[in-house]
Specification:
- It contains 18 helices and 22 strands.
- It is of the alpha/beta class.
- The chain has 3 domains: about 300 residues, 3-Layer(bba) Sandwich (FAD/NAD(P)-binding domain); about 110 residues, 3-Layer(bba) Sandwich (FAD/NAD(P)-binding domain); about 80 residues, no CATH class.
- α2 packs parallel to α16.
- The structure holds NADP nicotinamide-adenine-dinucleotide phosphate.
- The site of NADP nicotinamide-adenine-dinucleotide phosphate (NAP) has 25 residues, from α6.
Amino acid sequence: MPDTHALAERASPGQLAIYDAIVIGAGISGMYMLYRLRELGMTVRVFEAGSDVGGTWYWNRYPGARFDSESWTYGYSFSKELMAEWDWKEHFSPQPDTLEYLNYVADKFDLRRDIGFRSTVVAAHWDEAANRWNVTLENGQRANSRFLFTAIGILSAYTLPAIPGRDSFTGPAYHPARWPHTPVDFTGNRVGLIGTGATAIQAIPEIAKQAKHLTVFQRRPNWAAPLHNSKISKEEMAAIKSRYEEIYAHCATTPSWFIHQADPRKTLDVPPEEREAFWEKLYGEPGFGIWMGNFRDILTSEDANAAISAFIAKKIRQRVKDPKVADKLIPKDHGFGTRRVPLESGYFEAYNRDNVTLVDTLVDEPIECITPRGIKTIRQEHEFDILVYATGFDGVTGAYDRIDIRGENGLRLKDAWAETPRTYLGMLAEGFPNMLMVLGPHTARGNIPQAVSHSVEFQAGLLRFMQQHDHTRVATRPEQVDEWTRIVIKAGEALLSFKVDSWQNGVNRNVEGRTVRRVLGYNGNGAHFRRTTDEVAKGGYQEFAFR
Ligand code: NAP
């Protein structure tokens, strides 16, 4: 794989490499940002911790990893040629195909020549006098730029379980976000896996197929629904390509930029039989329809949510043979859809296998510690050959906290956001001029590449405007930050999802201090967000402060 080394990598410690823009991260966001910044004639350097492009899809190579959004809404839409050339093989693309796609994009647009791999950014400090960012890499190399783009993802700061003895296990232990590049062979092995989030729910059925025995340690169960993945035939792909414009235009009008649009009816207004038939239909269809194409009040009304939760619980009972195991797999502390719904392929059936055991660590067998031989609960020591920690991420702000980012007057971003992020549109943080965030906190997300594209295009437009008007500094305005933060928090707190702990609310008990819920995303309508940003652009970006 070509890994071109530009000035920054060749510079010896102490030497300073100078660019117009530095982008942190070469995943979906950073790659597209680089493409757009080049168009603006800027000198750009992307710093990427991995040894190649792909971000999430570079790191997460665990068995079963795949999209649960439709592949044909997941690609970049900036190049008609690219869209015409690329054939998705499955409706929900597996990780190797997605990584292949991102490599194809990197090759096609010759992106690698401006990317420094194995280049972890550890600090970024704003120099007010120079109006520039000073960036330091882990190896001590330094670089400097007018603009800094954080394309660091919302789920990149992975977290290991804070369980005593974690490092004492003598066998191999893996986190899915740092999976080896050569597949792990579970054949004949006793495997212990901690976690039952979206990652585990994808990995469990695959590991179960290979392992001698798989023991799943579940703290809190998650609601999950079938993915219904299938191959895309040549004819189907041709038909999708002919409709790309229509598909992407449609996604832009939906609340989360997926193909799914909520049903305008309220759950309890619909007669029970009709409701049941509608849910049966959604449960049998591919993708997020059961979550995003459901009645409009399932995520806001307790009663509506209880009804859909009862329906999904019934499905789990039908699919899991042992009623006691089924009961353990049904969440009791939160309703369907109030945490991110994992889509699964045979997850519940995995528990019907003789070689899979579910251990409920919340009630039956709390974990005491990890030992050299396995996992010790209050009842017994479970012995394993391999451990998998599918224990998630320090979501949204975690990746920011891992970099020493300092803005005006030396303000540390981590401190500034301790209570809540304060941003305008989730793109620019208060006190951090010229630092533009792709998928920053308090921005609209949903279908990630679509959110990324929108963010990158808005920011490229902002930069073009600055070039045209000879501005070299952009910052937030206090009144805009106040208003945006208020809107975001109000919308987030109104949802049932704010009543439950999850990475989406910034709760992660494996990380010190991550025990208080914070609204971390814009939970309003994505289409409305798009209109807001369009108006800001059309109005000449008056909501920003330029110099
Ligand atoms: P997650 O949803 O946060 O799940 C982490 C799991 O580990 C939870 O079950 C959690 O239990 C458990 N856990 C954490 N620390 C523990 C400890 N100390 N002891 C026992 N159990 C512990 O993380 P994830 O599964 O990696 O998924 C994160 C997000 O990534 C998803 O929500 C999704 O947005 C994204 N994702 C997407 C895809 C896709 O597109 N197909 C696939 C995978 C992931 P508690 O619930 O009790 O905390």
